[in-house]
């Protein structure tokens, strides 16, 4: 069983920055199959960022492109999300996840991911 522990959330003013981390308890998967989602109250869980192919490329939601950066440290089994120029609409619980190898539903669909972290709250004040 894989355990994912997300951390780094908090309260920040609009325009500020935060870096989220997601540590995997053990790695029986390729780090490039990890990604970030977020969920605001009353909304469905939405895709934020992930690696594609064999990890050479990244995919971002249009809403975060140019502001967020996904990265990984394979030696530390840790995934990161650097978030800059934060906006109030970025307020949500952020989840890290591991995508199933089959990627049946696609990179941006939550059903493609079979392991999830507990989430970390990010609140951006205006």
List keywords for this structure.
0% helix, mainly beta, 11 strands, 126 residues, 4-stranded antiparallel beta sheet
Describe the structure.
By secondary structure, this protein is an all-beta fold. Helix content is 0%, strand content 49%. It is built from no helices and eleven strands. Strands 2, 4, 5, 6, 9, 10 and 11 form a seven-stranded mixed sheet that branches. A four-stranded antiparallel sheet has the order 1-3-8-7, with no helix packed on it. Strand 5 and strand 6 form a beta hairpin. The chain is globular. The termini are far apart. 30% of the residues are buried. The mean pLDDT is 93.
- Which percent band covers the strand fraction? over 45%
Counted beta strands: 11
> Poorly predicted ranges (pLDDT <50, ≥5 residues)?
none
Number of helices: 0
Please trace the helix and strand order, writing H or E for each element: EEEEEEEEEEE
Would you tell me the structural class of the helices and strands? Answer: mainly beta
Cα(first) to Cα(last) distance is: 40 Å
Mean model confidence by pLDDT: 93
The radius of gyration computed from the alpha-carbon positions, rounded to a whole number of angstroms, is 13 Å
Shape field: globular
Determine the fraction of residues in helical runs and give it as a percent range: under 10%
Largest sheet data = 7 strands, mixed
């Amino acid at each position: 069983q894989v355990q994912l522990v997300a951390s780094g959330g908090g309260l920040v003013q609009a325009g500020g920055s935060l870096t989220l981390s997601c540590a995997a308890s053990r790695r029986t998967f390729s780090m490039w199959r990890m990604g970030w989602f977020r969920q605001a109250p009353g909304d469905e869980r939405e895709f934020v960022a992930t690696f594609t192919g064999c990890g050479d490329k990244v995919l971002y939601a249009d809403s975060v492109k140019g502001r967020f950066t996904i990265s990984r440290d394979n030696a530390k089994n840790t995934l990161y999300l650097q978030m800059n120029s934060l906006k109030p609409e970025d307020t949500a619980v952020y989840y890290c996840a591991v995508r199933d190898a089959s990627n049946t539903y696609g990179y941006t669909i939550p059903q493609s991911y079979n392991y999830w972290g507990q989430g970390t709250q990010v609140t951006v004040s205006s």
